[in-house]
Specification:
Elements (H helix, E strand, L loop, with lengths): L2 H9 L4 E2 H9 L11 H13 L3 E8 L2 E9 L1 H10 L12 H7 L6 H24 L7 H29 L14
Antiparallel strand pairs: 1-3, 2-3
Helix pairs in contact: 1-3, 1-4, 2-3, 6-7
Length: about 180
């Protein structure tokens, strides 16, 4: 799903500024399964305005530029609902950290431990974020997705804790990969 469509989805939850939309992807309900940057959100909002799928109201702020708050139009809601009728593409898991861990034998023990510990901390932190979200009145779909996120992050952290010794404990039977010939 593209960022333009995701912005429509966020706006089904209520009116929001570009900053508030971005927050939904940083620490809100989308944080554990989708990423969208300011560099993609603001151009998407511009296109949605051009297509009359959203409207915008400017609110004056003291000592700051006017705040633009976007609202979903009826056409925008229909466009989003129509987008949900298209079968989603299969998920693709992408992780730079897993590349590092895959080539663990090429890292120094300190580098490997640092990468491992930061990755483990990330999973534990995200599980805490999801645990801390307000569940009051959330529709079943949102609660289900949150639960999946909690299961994922807690499961990954548990796996890493249980198998830490396999990666960090030394004594690996893996042989270093020979360097490429020049």
């Amino acid at each position: 799903m593209d960022v333009k469509t995701l912005c429509l989805g966020v706006l089904t939850l209520g009116d929001a500024s570009g900053y508030e939309i971005r927050k939904q992807f940083e620490e809100g309900p989308f944080a554990h399964f989708f990423e969208a940057s300011y560099g993609s959100i603001y151009p998407a909002l511009g296109r949605l305005l051009d297509e009359e799928l959203v409207s915008v109201a400017e609110h004056a702020q003291d000592g700051k530029p006017d705040k633009k708050v976007y609202s979903l139009t009826a056409a925008g809601r229909k466009t989003f609902v129509d987008a949900l009728t298209v079968e989603p593409a299969p998920d693709k898991f992408r992780s730079e950290v897993l590349v590092y861990l895959f080539f663990a034998e090429l890292l120094t023990p300190n580098q490997l431990e640092t990468v491992f510990e930061r990755y483990l901390a990330h999973f534990k932190d995200m599980a805490c974020v999801l645990d801390g979200l307000n569940k009051g009145g959330a529709p079943n779909g949102r609660l289900f997705v949150r639960g999946m996120g909690q299961a994922f992050y807690k499961g990954m952290a548990a796996y890493m804790d249980a198998h830490r010794h396999e990666l960090l404990g030394g004594g690996s039977s893996a042989k270093p990969v020979p360097e490429a010939a020049e």
